[in-house]
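Appendix B, example 12.
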Amino acid sequence: MAQMLLDENVPKSVREWLNKKGFSTIDVSEVNLKGAKDKVVAEYAQQNNLTVFTLDTDFAQIYHNLLKGKFGVIVVRAKPATPKNIIEVLDVAHRKVDLSKVQNRLVIVTKKRIRIIS
């Protein structure tokens, strides 16, 4: 299973949910990347075989423009982006797709749709 590098916009309760579901997570602050530019976080993920987990669509742009197929990104789009709504979106996605097997792909998850881009 790919480890997930959690962007700093991911609430603690979402990390706890991911861990309960069996995902291995690392927070950007644990690897001294708190406040780092998204490109730096993406490059770290690529170098360390991590999948970035974020609420930030900028990582989708980095994936498309710079590192396509070289690292994985899971973008969760929940409106509003409260921990409860994020977890609800993830719960639906988790039942439909094995999120642990999206390495080196871009996955955009909403309540009604899951897009997997390779």
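The first helix runs from residue 12 to 20. The radius of gyration is 13 Å.
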